[in-house]
Design brief:
Blueprint (H helix, E strand, L loop, with lengths): L5 E4 L5 H12 L3 E5 L4 H15 L3 E4 L6 H15 L4 E4 L14 H29 L2 E6 L12 H21 L4 E8 L5 H14 L3 H12 L8 H12 L10 E4 L7
Parallel strand pairs: 1-2, 1-4, 2-3, 4-5, 5-6, 6-7
Helix pairs in contact: 1-8, 3-4, 4-5, 6-7
């Protein structure tokens, strides 16, 4: 489906981002991975995707908390791969605390990575997409871009911002062949969520799996985690011709969380 196209996926060396990168590579897209981690493991991921799907795969370790680095990442991707067709802004971090106890440095870091990086990557990619007359911007927001939870003020603020920014991007690019949409996952059992499960297990003095079930029962009526593969499939759809007239949407993939 995407042979000859190039996708940049932020935060894609693990979790949801890797699921997205894999799904796009499976459909023939050349991939620029981004993320931190063990260099050997990242190279293993890069080379495996390249060999398994017969596509070009590069890695850019840009620090997305710095706007200049984000924009350089997009420029390097275009220079290395020749174009950019699909931008998936996925990278994110989390910290939980009450508003009055929320560390200022954590607030700033979450807003920088979860929201400002989306702006910088989009701003850098749009001129190239406009020149091509086509492009797909897909922002991985969160169910917390639609509803709130306690002790997550920075994350909720950032993800609501991502949803709003997606709508603004869609309006500014309407009719150009470029679309902008947001996916809003509920609980996905990533390392980020695993930390919250561990904290819950400690508070309730229970085991990890019991805590995981309790976490789901609190918010997600399906009582099942969303998988990275399911998010990857949603990205493939939004990047396809079938979604050419879908723009400015925020699509929950949340097991019924926001249906309550």
């Amino acid at each position: 489906m995407f042979t000859g196209k190039v996708a940049v996926v932020t935060g894609s060396t693990s979790g949801i981002g890797l699921g997205i990168a894999t799904a796009l590579a499976q459909q023939g897209a050349d991939i620029v991975l981004n993320g931190f981690g063990d260099a050997q493991e990242i190279e293993r991921i890069r080379s495996t995707l390249e060999a398994e799907f017969g596509v070009r795969v590069a890695h850019d370790g840009a620090d997305l908390s710095r706007g200049e680095s984000v924009r350089e990442m997009i420029a390097h991707a275009v220079s290395r791969m020749g174009r950019i067709d699909i931008l998936v802004n996925n990278a994110g971090i989390q910290h939980t605390a009450s508003i009055e106890e929320f560390p200022v440095e954590k607030w700033d870091a979450i807003l920088a990575l979860n929201l400002s990086a989306v702006f910088h990557a989009t701003a850098a990619a749009l001129p190239h997409m406009k020149q091509q007359g086509s492009g797909r911007i897909i922002n991985i927001a969160s169910v917390h871009g639609l509803v709130a939870s306690v002790n997550k003020s920075a994350y909720v603020a950032a993800k609501h911002g991502v949803v709003g920014f997606t709508k603004a991007t869609a309006l500014e690019t309407a009719g150009t062949g470029i679309t902008a949409n947001a996916i809003c996952p509920g609980w996905v059992r990533t390392a980020l969520v695993e930390q919250q499960i561990t904290a819950l297990a400690q508070r309730k003095e229970t085991d990890q799996e019991s805590a995981a079930r309790a976490l789901l029962a609190e918010k997600q009526p399906s009582l099942q985690f969303v998988t990275p593969e399911q998010i990857g499939a949603m990205v493939v759809f939004l990047a396809s011709d079938a979604a050419a007239q879908m723009t400015g949407t925020a699509l929950p993939v949340d097991g019924g969380w926001t249906a309550r």
